[in-house]
Amino acid sequence: MNKVISIKPVPLGGELQARVTAPVERDGALPVVVFSHGYGSSMEAYGPLTDYWAAHGLAVVQPNHTHDTDPQGWRMRVDDVRRVLDQLALVEAGFTVDRDRIAVAGHSFGGQTAGNLLGLQVRDPETGTETALSDTRVKAGVLLATAGRGTELTPYAAEHYPFMNPRFDRMRTPALVVAGDNDNSPLSTRGPEWMTDPYHLSPGPKSLLMVPGGEHSLGGIPGYDARETTDASPERLDLVRRVTLAYLQHALGIDDTAWKSADVESK
């Protein structure tokens, strides 16, 4: 694998900053993945995944969402990603990015954020309205351990996280959904299958990777030695890294070789 370099903080105006990770050796403009972290996490996290993608030729931009506790935090996160896309010139440090090859990805709450750019809609709990937030600059997405329908939230989750009410029927941009078959979220009454809603309830083309034995950490993607990892497994982590990379290379028109042999469900 190629060596990688991370640059931080990259100021993007106001409180918004980003961490940019890219391969040291590169040839031409780099495809871009904007990665949205989980609730309460930061741009410092997810190195096991973002470093791997960068080592294989992608530029990964991780905005530091700072407003998760704001009632409008779900919407402000989407605005953060849009501002990254608006200001890609600011993340270029010794390399150029390919503006025709842009993907978004996210874990947990970050998956909902990324999904909004793909066409997922949220009913604003304050106004009751739904707003289309998709972005045509985004060609594909990877949604990792992303929440399902809001009708199956626990009473606690429905009270404290009313923005978790996604609608998937307009999420038309291609995406890979990654879920652990042992991810029993305390936020849902349904069990691990809840995390597959972004695949089953959205229009194609979509693909689904079920991670055997995977919990919410999917083998260890939140960070190196991260405390929140409950299912640490080199094998699970390797599976998630390999398949997500293969998908991104496929969806962005880089290389189809690895994706053709990936064991996933597709529609």
Automatic annotation (TrEMBL):
GO terms for biological process: lipid catabolic process. Gene3D superfamilies: alpha/beta hydrolase (3.40.50.1820). Keywords: Hydrolase, Lipid degradation, Lipid metabolism. Residues 33-202 form the AB hydrolase-1 domain. SUPFAM superfamilies: alpha/beta-Hydrolases (SSF53474). PANTHER family: PLATELET-ACTIVATING FACTOR ACETYLHYDROLASE. This is Alpha/beta fold hydrolase. It comes from Kribbella soli.
